[in-house]
């Protein structure tokens, strides 16, 4: 019989006790993964999430659930994920508003950038500068001239204070040196109805709804570096000489801080592969989004870009939402 010294025995017991005391955060391949969506079921982001879950489930050979936690501009869903166990089974379909803008605008928020680990960048989408066709304006230069000659500020629709469209309007006003006034709406549909009825002057929503109403609405530019191949007649904001107005809103996957690196790598690989499939590319095109799939490093870069881009606007305008 092999003899074990008293010291070796005590060391082994202590090692076992320490190991048992450590949080068991390694991914359990028998447990489903939940993707938390901070919006209601049936919407565009929900559709993206369900197709993503289907593809990732096949890649990982795991059951993936989509759970909708809407409300408070994405804060409810983000807060839930920030508090979740970092065991690789909870993900957040986050974006510019629910993550970056909420954190930078709301000092009393229960989460911040340090509460999340980046998992994967998925896609983003450009904004537009759009006017009613009835205004007879066909270019950015004409819009600027019109705004300077008018005796009152132009009205632009937003999704509320601190939204991407609200902040972009502030940037447009400064860049063009023209007075603009934000008008908040519950959704883009309501804003576009007012725009087409002549009760507004400008809108910055995504190109798809604008194109669908092209008889009443005129897209003057996309907030991109280059022209979109699917919209070759619409100039980019950079080619028009305003690169500082290049703007997009992103969507990606985040996890609670402390999620094991191996789990993040596996999930990111599955997500990226899914986004690059023909089915996912089709739904992106149908919704005016652009694939921008990449791992944690790409999403970290995007978060830093948000701090530089949106953070500057928020700071310069002293915007705080309590």
From TrEMBL:
Position of the signal peptide: 1-26
Keywords assigned by UniProt, alphabetized: Signal
Pfam families in alphabetical order: TctC
Listed InterPro entries: BUG, Bug_dom1
Family, similarity comment: Belongs to the UPF0065 (bug) family.
PANTHER family (UniProt xref): BLR1237 PROTEIN, TRICARBOXYLATE-BINDING PROTEIN
Name assigned to this protein: Tripartite tricarboxylate transporter substrate binding protein
Organism in which the protein naturally occurs: Advenella faeciporci
Organism classification: Bacteria, Pseudomonadati, Pseudomonadota, Betaproteobacteria, Burkholderiales
């Amino acid at each position: 019989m092999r003899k074990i010294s008293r010291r070796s025995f005590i060391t082994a017991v202590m090692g076992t006790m320490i190991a048992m005391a450590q949080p068991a955060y390694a991914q359990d391949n028998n447990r489903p993964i939940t993707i938390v969506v901070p919006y209601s079921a049936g919407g565009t982001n929900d559709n993206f999430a369900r197709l993503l879950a289907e593809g990732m489930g096949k890649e990982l050979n795991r059951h993936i659930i989509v759970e909708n936690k809407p409300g408070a501009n994405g804060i409810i869903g983000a807060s839930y994920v920030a508090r979740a166990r970092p065991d690789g089974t909870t993900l957040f379909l986050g974006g510019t508003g629910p993550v970056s803008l909420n954190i930078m605008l709301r000092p009393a928020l229960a989460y911040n950038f340090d509460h999340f680990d980046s998992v994967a960048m998925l896609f983003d989408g450009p904004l537009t500068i759009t006017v009613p066709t009835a205004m007879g304006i066909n270019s950015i230069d004409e819009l600027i001239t019109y705004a300077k000659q008018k005796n009152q500020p132009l009205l632009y629709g937003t999704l509320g204070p601190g939204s991407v469209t609200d902040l972009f309007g502030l940037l447009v006003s400064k860049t063009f040196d023209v007075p603009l006034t934000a008008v908040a709406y519950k959704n883009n549909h309501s804003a576009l109805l007012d725009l087409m009825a002549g009760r507004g002057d400008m809108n910055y929503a995504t190109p798809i709804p604008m194109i669908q109403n092209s008889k009443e609405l005129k897209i003057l530019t996309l907030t991109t570096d280059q022209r979109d191949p699917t919209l070759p007649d619409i100039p980019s904001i950079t080619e028009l000489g305003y690169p500082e107005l290049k703007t997009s809103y992103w969507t990606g996957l985040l996890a609670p801080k402390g999620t094991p690196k191996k789990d993040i790598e596996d999930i990111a690989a599955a997500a990226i592969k899914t986004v690059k499939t023909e089915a996912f590319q089709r739904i992106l095109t149908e919704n005016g989004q652009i694939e921008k799939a990449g791992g944690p490093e790409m999403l970290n870069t995007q978060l830093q870009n948000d701090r530089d881009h949106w953070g500057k606007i928020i700071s310069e305008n002293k915007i705080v939402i309590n």
